[in-house]
Amino acid sequence: MGSNQQANTFKFPLDLGAPDGTLEGKAPPVDNGLAVPDPSRYYSAEFMAKEGKDLWPRVWLLAACSADIREAGDYTVYQHGKEEFIVVRQDDLSIKTFYNACPHRGNRICQVDRGTASSFTCPFHSWKFECDGRLKEIVDEETFNPKLIQHRPGLSEVRTDTLGGLVFINMDGKAPPLNEWMGLPEGYLEAYDMDSMNLVRHTRSEWKSNWKTGVDTFYESYHLPHIHPQTQGSIEEFSQIDLYRNGFSRMIMWFGIKSHRFEAEHERALDEGVKIFLRDAGIDPESYTGTNADTRVDIQAAKRERARTLDPLRPWDKLTDGQLSDGWITGMFPNVQMGMHAEGVFIMRFVPHETDPERFYYDNMLLYRHVDVPNYDVPTWMAMPEELDVTGATRPDIERWPVDQVPGIGPVLLQDWELVEHVQRGLKSSGFKGPLWGEQEQRIRHYQREIDRYLDGEK
Ligand code: FES
Ligand SMILES: [Fe+2]
Which residue, judged by its Cα, is nearest atom 3 of ligand 1? Predict the structure, then answer.
């Protein structure tokens, strides 16, 4: 079974050899220089204020997954810094977004994370608004001077667009059209058919660092052997790194194979982690006769075979063999990373705190394509709690953890959670002169450089 594909001659940077111009192909190199930025970008209130003025309003922000608001009237609330938005599916199934602030006295109209509504009523004095934002009713309208309300104050709308099953908003309304602004190659998001997946879990925990300290941590696999040693037996941390336009990027990580650091002669036995990946693909690890060099390609073949026999997995026909086994870890400027896999997409959103540059909210949204057949389930590495419904029948509530509670996000992500507050503290040391990003960390320099373009007036 399988061919001897894994090279123990891994060299960095990796080029997996897919043809140029394909989604898998290696993007041409980008020279982002060697400048060492001042670390105050990670903690100063002034830098945070600049982001609030020159970055966040001017980009497209991931506000929701369209799978979470499928029916007319479905809405979800997205909080980003001091702003809060209501994202609502309209009767014609388009999507509109409004600031979550009542035009009367500013009260938050929606005080729950999500729901379904035929109209919105502000809890303070019960003004009513249509789902399209128009004013429906002012209680005791005759007690208002008509001049004050002659503009029929409705909800304040925010520019909204969708791409590949994701909903984006642009606060200042002046960003280029979404499909021009999107730095990922054409068809990249669409290939995963996220519209046919369900949002099966959404968690939000508060972490003790700047949002960029968080992004930086997840934008490289260099730290895997050190912070997540348990992944070494089943994930290759040397990635193909692709820098795309407008601060976007990707790293392709091989899943279901031992890291190149293990020489086959040293370590012949299959790692327990790899066995899990085999089992997830429908291969019985106990009777498996392949070696560590074969697991990744055998996983691909097994998944390909499944897709041939299971109709709901037809979308896999559009994926390469690499996409069936690997994680395409995709950076969406400025604050999102998506682990893109055949079975589902693991979205991480790094949301700035309302006021504190040394806090952020870590949002995880797990999109999963449910297939109702025996022995097919959410991949084990996604760490889904047993009791959660993965069929898409239930819209999950957001599970929240305040800053001092250990979040229920699984052991690997907890290692990052523990790490970031120490990084944040060290960043502020007088002895620290700024980050020295190596080539395994080039995605960090790439998006940080793009942030500077916004803040320095180049964009
Ligand atoms: S603040 Fe909303 S009705 Fe008064
Ligand atoms: Fe990590």
Answer: 125
Residue linked to tokens 């809890």? 123
Q: How far apart are CA 94 and CA 110, in angstroms?
A: 20
Burial state string for 342-379 with b = 16 or more CB within 10 A and e = fewer than 16: bbbbbbbbbbbbeeebbbbbbbbbbbbbbeeeeebbbb
Ligand 1 site: residues with CB under 6 angstroms? 102, 104-105, 107, 122, 124-125, 127
Average pLDDT estimate for 29-37: 97
Asked if 207 contacts 421 with a C-beta cutoff of 8 angstroms, the reply is: yes
* Choice from 86, 104, 119, 136 to test ligand 1 binding pocket (greatest atom count within 8 A of CB): 104
pTM of the model: 0.95
Burial of 452 (0-12, 13-18, 19+ CB in 10 A): middle
Confidence of residue 86 (pLDDT cuts 50, 70, 90): very high
Point out the ligand 1 atom lying closest to the alpha carbon of residue 139. 3
Structure-block tokens of residue 274? 């790899």
Radius of gyration of the chain (CA): 23
pLDDT at 264: 59
What angle (nearest 5°) sits at the alpha carbon of residue 213, between those of residues 453 and 248? 45
Average pLDDT estimate for 221-232: 94
* Domains located in the chain, CATH noted: 1-58+185-459 (3.90.380.10), 61-181 (2.102.10.10)
